[in-house]
């Protein structure tokens, strides 16, 4: 998924040569949508409903390198006049996973009293590219924030990071010492503190309903990389042609956890992994995203504008014929993902429950009424026990998983969390043991 809204229509044909930064696909002019630019200089090999395949002219293929003033010279520049048009023309969308077109988010007036929140929480375990970007380019992030503040007529901004990220806090605080209107705020290191409404609750003390937008709190929330792309669109006049990601797990020697900056859009996961040492033996899943909400993908899957992590796990445990109950979360693992994990373990699903704070939205997805604040899971676990489950596969937030552990073992139910195989891959403690 690259953006929310109308799909983009291809603007190039097979055989055509394209330059880096050339527009290759675009949504209809007046529709909510986005614009796509070639991330390399190359020749169009194929055009489908899902993708445009471009063969690089450079025989070395896709260079995975950080953008620099030098490399930016090779990207076609934007020539729009005003800030909002530049952001639209650059194809900036929410980089944190939502993919909402940023020009639309910034096309409003908060009346001089609004707030911009820069979301640097990166609450999915193991992901660290936002954190590292804040350390590398704090001035660029701050420029992006100032641009957003000016566009939406806000008088205050907060950069929100996890409290354990002391180095990030120090770097940002130092850069902000002469800025009265921008402050750093910290939140607990617990999933899902990076959820938009969780951040607003923690920073502004206002709990929004699941269907309410940040605007209800006179606020706009933007991901760190989105703000970097806003700066690049306005100051450098470059479109979005690359993505920061974090590589995690069984890649190369031992365990990998490293950020990759400015990976050209369209690079396949296979290319990324090969460049980082190749796959280790005994691979389980390849997940695109974070451990809680990522999706299982293949090596051919390309990096897109919302890709966060690429995680290679060890194989899932074999639990053939085990009867399992599923416990869904509004912010973490939901029905489809938990069912997929049960199938991969060879288990039989005998019941499904959802956390009582997980409510169904119009699109069928679940959302939490109060993210990360557990209502207690005893009733749900008892229901799964009544369905004759031997074990529970839960996708719950960290706080709720602790309450699952308060009940399930007493009923002689095993517990698997949807992130267990990722934590085991990294030799880390499991989510459900958070308070031990
Ligand atoms: S309270 Fe329930 S729905 Fe909300 S994040 Fe925790 S497990 Fe998910």
Automatic annotation (TrEMBL):
<keyword id="KW-0677">Repeat</keyword>
<dbReference type="InterPro" id="IPR010208">
    <property type="entry name" value="Ion_transpt_RnfC/RsxC"/>
</dbReference>
<keyword id="KW-0004">4Fe-4S</keyword>
<keyword id="KW-0249">Electron transport</keyword>
<dbReference type="GO" id="GO:0009055">
    <property type="term" value="F:electron transfer activity"/>
</dbReference>
<feature type="domain" description="NADH-ubiquinone oxidoreductase 51kDa subunit FMN-binding">
    <location>
        <begin position="87"/>
        <end position="231"/>
    </location>
</feature>
<keyword id="KW-0813">Transport</keyword>
<dbReference type="Pfam" id="PF01512">
    <property type="entry name" value="Complex1_51K"/>
</dbReference>
<dbReference type="InterPro" id="IPR011538">
    <property type="entry name" value="Nuo51_FMN-bd"/>
</dbReference>
<keyword id="KW-0479">Metal-binding</keyword>
<protein>
    <submittedName>
        <fullName>Proline reductase-associated electron transfer protein PrdC</fullName>
    </submittedName>
</protein>
<keyword id="KW-0408">Iron</keyword>
<dbReference type="InterPro" id="IPR031001">
    <property type="entry name" value="PR_assoc_PrdC"/>
</dbReference>
<dbReference type="GO" id="GO:0051539">
    <property type="term" value="F:4 iron, 4 sulfur cluster binding"/>
</dbReference>
<dbReference type="InterPro" id="IPR037225">
    <property type="entry name" value="Nuo51_FMN-bd_sf"/>
</dbReference>
<feature type="domain" description="RnfC Barrel sandwich hybrid">
    <location>
        <begin position="2"/>
        <end position="51"/>
    </location>
</feature>
<dbReference type="Pfam" id="PF13375">
    <property type="entry name" value="RnfC_N"/>
</dbReference>
<dbReference type="GO" id="GO:0016020">
    <property type="term" value="C:membrane"/>
</dbReference>
<dbReference type="InterPro" id="IPR026902">
    <property type="entry name" value="RnfC_N"/>
</dbReference>
<dbReference type="GO" id="GO:0046872">
    <property type="term" value="F:metal ion binding"/>
</dbReference>
<keyword id="KW-0411">Iron-sulfur</keyword>
